[in-house]
Amino acid sequence: TSSTDLSNVVPNFSAMPNANGSTVAIRGIVSTQQTINGVSEVSYSEDGVGLITMRDAFDGMYDINRVEVLRGPQGTLYGANANAGAINVITNKPDLSRTSAQGSIGFGNYQAFSTSGVLNVPISDTLGLRFAADDERHEGYVYLTTNNSRFDDQDFIGGRLHLLWKPSDSFSALLTYNTFHNGGDGDGGRAS
What we know:
Elements: H1 3-9, E1 13-18, E2 21-26, E3 29-30, E4 42-46, E5 49-50, E6 64-71, H2 75-78, E7 85-91, E8 100-108, E9 112-122, E10 127-138, E11 142-144, E12 149-151, E13 154-168, E14 171-183
């Protein structure tokens, strides 16, 4: 569900959220230049669509099928921003065989509250719709006594809509709409 969870299960991989997105290292190779003009050493894509910067990486880690982490230079397939490797997040696609729904609610300390839900609806034998949404919030974990403020908070809400048309076994078309808002102060720009 997050970049830090992925760091716990993938060897030689580290992802740390920061004020400008995520700092990702594969096999010890990392780029700390996280500006809009910065070049990442790790390529990040969702369903094969690459992100230009790591600023929005790992947002939308909900209703996913799998995460592929490729170690080592991947420039042939993923371009110049893949010197250390590539990450590809594969989301769940509409299931044309059945209607289904699922959801979860979580809460914790620091006023943490999270909800997520998925609705899968086959419109016909060849057309299906899948909607997924996620909302995660908590107040800051770190309290600064110098200015009486907190940082390391989270305020994320996102949604994804897939429309799948599969008229035959040899052809399919997928239309995706993905939106999110990532608010809050995050880590306050501290070094990670």
